[in-house]
Batch of 4 targets.
Target 1
Amino acid sequence: MLGDSLHQQCDHAERNVIHRTLVNSGFNRTRTADALGISHVTLYKKMKK
């Protein structure tokens, strides 16, 4: 991670937050999106990355 660009580090952190929130919500994507304060469409797009 030391050689990663800031953009890569931000993407990695975002993936980790999304994954932890999915786990905490029992993999319910609607609840995950609500907990993250984003729309379910935005969550789906971020998960596709």
Target 2
Amino acid sequence: MLKNEDKDIVDEFERIFTKEHNVLLHTNIHKIEYNKNLFYVEAISQGKTILLQSEALLVATGIKPNTDLLNLQNTNIQTDKNGYIVVNEYLETTSPGVYALGDITGKYFYRHSVNFEGEFLFRTLYQEKKELLSNILQSHMQCLHIPRSPK
């Protein structure tokens, strides 16, 4: 969820978020059982077995790009090692004048993000002042990220 953020942002998010929520990092699920309307999860966290019980279970398997269907090998558009389209800080691909936005770039995976990126791209292309792209990290606690540098 925070893989594209700077370390100081990740640290602050974890500090605040863990005050309200039980967060397990570097944890592997060993076994899941469902009995009498409850989920029982056995996990290994930092070498220790832990048991969790919950009324609900959310499984997030991640996002896989489908750029292989776009025939990009016939273009100058490059993808990264995970298959996402490579863009610069202004959403321009490695093919000059061609832009990509949304989850296909592997940066922001929420629908509202692409709305913002579309507006950002319009301003970048048709206004003189170029700005850096900011984003909002969606969670129970929303975090606004305004970059200080193009990184």
Target 3
Amino acid sequence: MGHYMFNLLRVLEQFLRFIGCLLLALQYGRLLPRQMISQLHIAGVSSLVLICISALFIGLVFAFQMYIVLEGFGSLPQLSQVVAFGLFRELSPVVTGLLVAGRVGSTLAAELGQMKQAEQIDSLLMWGINSYAYLMWPRLLALLIVTPILVLAFDAISIYAAWFYAVTLHGMESQIFWTPLVFGSIYFEVDVLYGMYKAVFFGGWIGVMSLYQGAFVERGSSGIAKASTQAVVLSSAGVLMLDYVLSQFLY
């Protein structure tokens, strides 16, 4: 019991020290545009295909399930509202967060872990370069910027997938699908914005946990694998936990 408590306190001390160094690094200069562009590409563009494919099929499946339920109640004109409610508020930000955690979080932890083991981070310190400002903040900011944009892309593709299912496969008139959503719901824009707010917190959590795991990686190749796995697990669990907490405050 004492051994586990000691390890817990040690990890907590490491994490708090990491957060402190990350915050102190804000005083060091400005970000290089080339760094930001590179990290935006890694975090955003490289994840876009995965996000689009997931949004397409989740939109189709959700529309399929809701169509069956609403048809039984004779409420098919509300299909778009029901689908958008579930997608924009919960499914879109949460699924995007989980996908980003798996796709980007593991990459960040492995990349930073390799640099740590190769002593590249120590080399930066020898040259008087703050590694937190030079390496970690561009990656963290990229996730803070990109994750809401990916959620917005998920929203658009998934709702159009639902429209395709209802109109093309079941012959619903396009106007019947769009009118209740665009003109009949006062929460349409609010739900989209709240989903993007959640995404900012998700992106920050994923970035912090992934960079922390990479910064304190254990020696050896198994250390990098362990850091990547822990980054994905902690990021994914945090996304689900934050979703519940934020939902309590936002809705």
Target 4
Amino acid sequence: TDWPVLIQAAADNVQPPNGINTVITRDVYGKPVSVARTDTTNASWNATRSFYYDTNQRLCKRVDPEGAATYFAYDGANNIDWQGHTTNLSNVCNASQVAVADRVDFAYDMRNRLTATSYQDGVTVGSSRTWTADSLPNTVTQGDAVWTYGDNKRRMLTSETLALSGQNYPLTYGYDGFGSRETMSYPDAALVEFQPNRFGEPTKVAMPGQTTYASAITHHANGALATFSSGNSLGYSAVLNARQLPQQVSITTVYNDLYQWDAVGNLLNIDEISGSPTQSRDRAMYYDYANRLTRVDSAALGQFLYQYDDLDNLRQLTRAGVSYTYAYDDGGTRRLQKLHLTGQPTTEALGYSYDSRGNLTQRRPVSFGRPSHDFTVDKAHR
């Protein structure tokens, strides 16, 4: 088949360390069963993400190398009925593995449109949705906040209104005869116009009779911004190369930079033609076999060095005599546990704690007696 089963990163004259591969295992239907990063020289760096399916070939469980799993249940129309977090890492799809409080339930209408999301912990606020007859969003309600949407006869969005604490905050949109967005108004009644061209691209951003933010806007054939004049009379210009990547970007009297890229789209150099009178913006970037940034040489800020482990975690950043060392829970969750800073003017460390879902719950200085910062996160990861 055309499905990849082994990825061995390598470029011209740049070889990956011996034994490091990404292996994709599939079942007879072509569905991924596992994605593994393997190191034959050091098994402690191996990590596997596994996928399990029910008898209807629907994903029912994903086991992550960070030490947790997500279970998926379906209704008769193959919509996700609910999903839940569990620390049961077995290869069995069983709903009893998920505590009710760890579930997120979903409800749908007769046309399989999502109408409600509810969290079973009794704390997290869920949401509900209504739809127009042709399946455009009509309202979204979460707690005491309600978003209401309006559309014109061409089914283009004309308004978004947030109702919160007895106040309404409307956004409205106007269109020209070609269906391009022409105006936008804000809750304070400020009106902004865009004067779109025949491709629907804005040529101006201004408040009529008041402030002009940008004018004389032009675009490249691919839609990327080419030129504009800002409200304070500075001119912006961008030239693209044959691959549609920035080749030269300039702002009048501010900077004029050239960009160079490698064969896979990594930025190699930023060369300043003219600009700041006090320091150069020139930078050179270097990458390893996996296209990870390993070094930056900056004319203004000096050299930055980056080191990674086999799982692509940043392990060390060094610059100007200061070293940042990142320590992870390598044997379990693989989450960042400590950030250690050495060098002038101080030497200190930060520790991190997480909940079972991987949300950050505490950031604490290990030295100097500084206070910790605690975070409370609901089941919606907010």
